[in-house]
Amino acid sequence: MATEVAPMDEKAKRMRDLLSSFYAPDPSISASGSSINASFDNINSTSFDADQYMDLMIKKSNMEVLLQRHVQMAAEIKNLDTDLQMLVYENYNKFISATDTIKRMKSNIFGMEGNMDQLLQKIMSVQSRSDGVNTSLFEKREHIEKLHRTRNLLRKVQFIYDLPARLQKCIKSEAYGDAVRFYTGAMPILKVYGDTSFQDCRRASEEAIEIIIKNLQAKLFSDSESIQARAEAAVLLKQLDVPVDSLKAKLLEKLEQSLDGLQIKPEDASKLAEHNDSSKDEESNDQGPAKIHEDAVRGFSEAMRAYREIFPDSEERLFKLARALTTMYFENMEIYIKKRVSAADFLRIFRIIWEDVVLMDEVLPEAALSDLSAEAAQVTLKQFVARTFSNLQQDISDTLLKFDINQKEIVDGEVLKVVLEASRKAVLQGTADIFQDFRQLLDESSGIFVKMKDFLVGWVQKGFQDFFRSLEAHFLVLSGKTSSSNETEGKSSEKIHAGLILVLAQLCVFIEQKVIPRITEEIAASFSGGNSQAYESGPAFIPGELCRVFHAASEKLLQHYIDTRTQKISVVLRKRFKTPNWVKHKEPREVHMFVDMFLQQLEEVGKEVKQILPQGTFRKHKRSDSNGSNTTTSSRSNTLHSDKMARSNSQRARSQLFETHLAKLFKQKVEIFTKVEFTQESVVTTVVKLCLKSLQEYVRLQTFNRSGFQQIQLDIQFLKAPLKETVEDEAAIDFLLDEVIVAASERCLDVIPLEPPILDKLTQAKLAKSKEHNNNNNNNTISS
């Protein structure tokens, strides 16, 4: 079969043209093949017209394209000059070497004619003496050959006389193969001399052969005999010229039924792999599952070999049976790997399958079982790689969800820290185990795996890329940030604990900073290169892209945690402002209980972030006092006290409101919402800012009487101290608290603030009450 010539690339064509132009006497000869169909714009053609080419380029191209073509053509000219120079140098060296070789040959040939004459004389002398020896020994050699032929004839005669006895011995020992071989060997002599000299021997041998035929037919129809034994019986009967074509359908049907016993079923694959591994470590005569399966497949192969010899016209059916068995092997393997299977067990089963395929391929090479197995093995191995990554993702998800996160555990213990450490360990250990499994596959020396190593490298790279993308999407589903069609994975945001969202955010940071660089090093060390076809539908492993994905995911999850916590606190704030009738509110007697609930929620946030996030550089950002807008409570109290005798209560209230609005106009601009950092202080500060902003909006939706406004004033005054101790940006908190007071005053029907002494008295009473409550709780804890 003629082989197709592979098309030459650009460089090969250029080198061929250079050689042709260098060695051809007529330059037109070298380019005759290409100049026939060359157009006027082909720069490599002999009929190239520079003027027409330039006109065409100017019409079709702009200045940028012309400059690019100029640079490209200059580079091509330089490369052609370099190639031509190297070609001349190489040929010059070859010419010098050829000249030196010819000179050496001339010097070595000198004097050889005399030696050749002497050699010819010696050969003629040896030939004459050999002819003399042959003539003297001719008669003796003829006599020896005649005696040898007589001896062989006597042996054959003796074999014919001993044939009946030999056949009887074979019948007793059931060595029917030897009996058939003896009888078929003697048949040429019995056919010629069986009616004369060897008549009695022929009759006795035929009687013995009839017994052998009956025994072979009984074995052929016996269901207790193995397929191989029955096939051997059919072969022997055919050698004895007994018709067996009528038995073909029945024998092939029996062979098809034997396929069920040869399958490697998923439930038996583990036992087969374990026994196959143990049998290599220690020699044993125990007929375990692997040995039994090997013997069965070997018997099946021998039966197919025998059937092919008996029934040459049944090859297509035998091919179909062998392909069906191979296909069932890999279909059961795909079912087997749906469970959690180690690479070692996967390789053991694959070796068994490949050994079976090799046995059958030796018997039926035309069935192309190796090619069929290679295609099926690629599919199975790719599914195993994908299943391995899926199992790792499931392990990480189970680690995150196996802990029962509730508020009491977070307050009393460090359950979030335990979950984070366990999930980090699951990611690191899981990826390390995956690399160990894939290295076992890469180091496998079986014939079928050697051909798939490049594919395996590509699948591993693509698998890690898809795994991390899928893991990022799964984290967003677990956090409730995105929805999932799978009900077992997707949960509503109300059922997801905010602490889990914070764990996922920090885990994304860990994967970005620690895991992906480690995976990149491992891939570069052991899984670099690979076949491009393995990931033609998408990119291979791109660590930079994955780092960006997880960096963005960590920011999304951190913001989602803040939003979740803020929404929960906003529920408390909304209930506080929608429940009472603020127009008929009574005079404030104490700080409202919603303040305690608000501070309790912030305390929970602080305990959560303390377990997960690192502590940042805690720098207090205070408001500037240059404009007089941030005077202390005591200074305002003293000022008001000094003016108490000079102004009435109504005038003092209007003056305070006027001062507040005026101070707001001249305040320095405060940046409220900044970028959230992965630190405890940044997250808590952001949550407080968002809550105060929500508080301001709820205040703007209500209408207050004097007492309602004073209640808001009292609550905000009490919040100032604990909030400033919690956050790092005091200036923004002061600004937002003042905004709440301003919003309440704008929505108040009769704005008269509480006197500073009254504010101090009520806040001190609340502080004393809170301290007493905390002491009682501590005593109860100690006693319990």
From TrEMBL:
Q: Output the Pfam families linked to this UniProt entry.
A: VPS51_Exo84_N
Q: Tell me one GO biological process term.
A: Golgi vesicle transport
- A GO CC term attached to the entry: membrane
Chief subcellular location equals: Golgi
Task: State the residue spans of region: Disordered.
Answer: 271-291, 616-646
Q: Where is the composition biased (Low complexity)?
A: 626-640
Sorted UniProt keywords: Golgi apparatus, Lipid transport, Protein transport, Transport
- Secretion signal, residue range per the UniProt entry: none
- Residue ranges with Basic and acidic residues bias: 271-282
InterPro entries recorded: Vps51
Q: Where in the cell is it found?
A: Golgi apparatus, trans-Golgi network
Q: Which family does it belong to?
A: Belongs to the VPS51 family.
Explain the purpose of this protein. Answer: Acts as component of the GARP complex that is involved in retrograde transport from early and late endosomes to the trans-Golgi network (TGN).
Q: How does it assemble?
A: Component of the Golgi-associated retrograde protein (GARP) complex.
Q: What is this protein called?
A: Vacuolar protein sorting-associated protein 51 homolog
Where does this protein come from, organism-wise?
Answer: Noccaea caerulescens
